[in-house]
Amino acid sequence: KKKMLKSLLVFAILALTNLSNAQITWKDCGSKNGAVTSLEVEGCSATPCTLKKGQDASMLVKFNQKIAANTVSAKVSGVILGVPIPFPLPESNACNLAATCPASANTENQVALKLPILNEYPSLSVDVRIQFLGDSNTNIVCFQFPVKISS
Q1: CATH number for the 27-149 domain, one of 3.30.420.380, 3.40.50.880, 1.20.140.160, 2.60.40.770?
Q2: CA 50 to the chain's CA centroid
């Protein structure tokens, strides 16, 4: 009986360890002056992330920025059948979303985004495309990751 309990415990630890290795994966969609280093989505440990209607999806994106920028702005789209559909943000000025502004070249920066998932949105699987732009809309990073919008 003790041996069975011990092997069950080992199995449980292994299962949990495997779970923590699951991660949110994203793909680059044309970053010109930087690279995403990490993406955390609240309540999500592996893609596709499920975003609930009527709630805000909170995420923290860290990225290396190769160019200096006085301002950083965020642009979010939902990509449906390869077509990016702009997603309205309550705040697109990343300087108000935990980003360092002005930002020096070759530094790590971060943006804490909140995306309101409206009840009117259809329940579907979609890629969320996020772009961070520097001065004069210069592309810093562009990446996308899969989500499921559900009730």
Answers
A1: 2.60.40.770
A2: 12
**0.90 exceeded by the pTM?**
no
∠ CA 121-128-54, rounded to 5°: 35
**b/e map of 26-60 (b: 16 or more CB within 10 Å)?**
beebebebbebeebebeebeebbbebeeeeebebe
3-state secondary structure the chain: CHHHHHHHHHHHHHHHHHHHHCCCCCEECCCCCEEEEEEEECCECCCCEEEECCEEEEEEEEEEECCCECCCEEEEEEEECCEEEEECCCCCEHHHCCCCCCECCCEEEEEEEEEEECCCCCCCEEEEEEEEECHHHCEEEEEEEEEEEEC
What is the token pair recorded at 140? 């810093």
Say yes or no to pLDDT of 2 above 80. Answer: no
